[in-house]
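We modelled the chain as a single entity of 157 amino acids. Its sequence is:
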Amino acid sequence: MSTEEIRAIELLGSVSYGRLATSMRAMPFVAPARHVVADGRVLIRLHRGLGYHRACNGSVVAYGADNLHSGAARLWAVQFTGTAGITEPTSEERAAFGSQPSHVDGETFEPVYMRIEPQFVTLHTLDHPADRPADHPADHPAENSAPSGERPIHHAA
């Protein structure tokens, strides 16, 4: 894996939820999902009652997560594109997910787990040094070298 792919996996591991995208009956859809990172792959937990796992199993999907609403000075968005497959997580992986919701759209939550084998990893970062408070916890002076008011965008695929 490249250093950018490793960084993308690290960032993904720093948030708990993302969005799964694929198509169902030739129509695109995006669904929220809980995830953990295990062995460089993304393991997601969905509600079985929605049926999304059937459309994803054996298909190419995209899974994305970000910190865009965190208020951090360095914003990022990660997307993994690869093949998804239904899996049974290990007890350690189940524990990493933490508690599960009791209901989804009024239905009792029944988990189904999928593992995504990434083929492509995309990382976008957006720096906002002019908007960042001086004492913000995401303050990384070495990484924020753009002149005040300039908002560089970085992309790695």
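As a brief sanity check on the tokenised model: Residues 59 and 112 are 16 Å apart (CA to CA). Residues 135-157 have pLDDT under 50 and may be disordered.
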